[in-house]
């Protein structure tokens, strides 16, 4: 009897020990999982969210009657945004690629029907157009007065302003470099307008809106915060004393078109891209975006909208 009791006790003790070990192991695993999860949970949720979004996007495209083949092509494009699926589904273009690019460029929207405020001005490729606006009262903090290569009133035919022309420092440095090289090729570039204040644009737009109506004002003047001149990264130019809005007809203009990207500038409103920019052709309005972006835009024959729309 004693032997049996001792054996029972032994078994019970072993069982308790095994059970205790199991619980300890369970607690340890849970703890480790929790700690690992702390570091990974964000990523996992983001991935899951992205997948859910993509599925939602595909569903929208399917409901709109798009073929499975097109859906597959569209959703695998690097510049496809699932939150724009509804707009992609509505928009008609030659190819799936074109649909995505054109909607990304807001070509499906009416001017000023959507406004995104551009808060970060550290990116030289920042977009200012009929859908992207600088904040109310925006003024760049690094404006520099243009000493050289600025027009002189009374001397230059196209000189519009007696005020000091200003640009943001990085754009200014690039502009001066560009003009120096151009001058060596007998192309004497002069700026006729640079930075314009938010208040200036507001005064202009408000005036024409009150006199001729908003539609008229929108047709000829950018809304406050939506003129590229407010960014301090745009400059209107002429050269060799020509009338600024005829420079495209003179020798030297071709050189400007082919070389300005090397200094970070692009022609902002090309003649063959008015449907993308939603602006008329402006041969004189150039915009600083930095060398890398300018080269990419030049080589792909893009506008700044398409540069952003390709992402
Ligand atoms: Zn301009």
From TrEMBL:
Gene3D superfamilies: 3.30.1380.10. It holds the Pfam family VanY. It comes from Holdemanella porci. InterPro entries: DD-CPase-like, VanY-like_core_dom, VanY/YodJ_core_dom, Zn_M74/Hedgehog-like. This is M15 family metallopeptidase. One of its GO terms (biological process) is proteolysis. It comes from the Bacteria. Residues 165-291 form the D-alanyl-D-alanine carboxypeptidase-like core domain. One of its GO terms (molecular function) is peptidase activity.
């Amino acid at each position: 009897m004693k032997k049996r009791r001792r054996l029972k006790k032994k078994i019970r003790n072993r069982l308790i020990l095994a059970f205790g070990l199991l619980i300890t192991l369970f607690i340890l695993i849970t703890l480790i999982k929790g700690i690992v999860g702390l570091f990974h949970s964000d990523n996992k949720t983001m991935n899951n969210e992205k997948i859910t979004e993509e599925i939602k996007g595909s569903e929208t495209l399917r409901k709109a009657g798009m073929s499975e083949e097109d859906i597959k092509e569209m959703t695998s494009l690097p510049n496809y945004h699932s939150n724009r699926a509804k707009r992609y589904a509505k928009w008609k273009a030659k190819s799936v690629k074109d649909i995505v690019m054109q909607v990304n460029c807001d070509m499906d929207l009416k001017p000023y029907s959507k406004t995104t405020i551009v808060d970060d001005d550290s990116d030289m490729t920042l977009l200012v157009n009929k859908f992207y606006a600088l904040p109310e009262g925006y003024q760049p903090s690094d404006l520099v007065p243009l000493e050289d290569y600025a027009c002189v009133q009374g001397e230059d035919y196209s000189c519009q302003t007696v005020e000091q022309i200003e640009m943001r420092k990085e754009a200014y440095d690039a502009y001066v470099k560009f003009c120096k090289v151009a001058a060596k090729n007998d192309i004497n570039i002069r700026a006729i307008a640079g930075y314009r204040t938010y208040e200036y644009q507001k005064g202009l737009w408000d005036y024409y809106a009150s006199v001729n109506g908003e539609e008229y004002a929108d047709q000829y003047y950018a809304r406050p915060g939506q003129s590229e001149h407010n960014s301090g990264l745009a400059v209107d130019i002429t050269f060799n004393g020509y009338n600024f809005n005829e420079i495209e007809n003179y020798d030297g203009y071709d050189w400007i078109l082919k070389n300005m990207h090397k200094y970070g500038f692009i022609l902002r409103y090309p003649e063959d891209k008015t449907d993308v920019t939603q602006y008329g052709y402006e041969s004189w309005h150039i915009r600083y975006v930095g060398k890398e972006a300018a080269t990419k835009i030049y080589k792909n024959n893009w506008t700044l909208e398409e540069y952003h729309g390709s992402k």
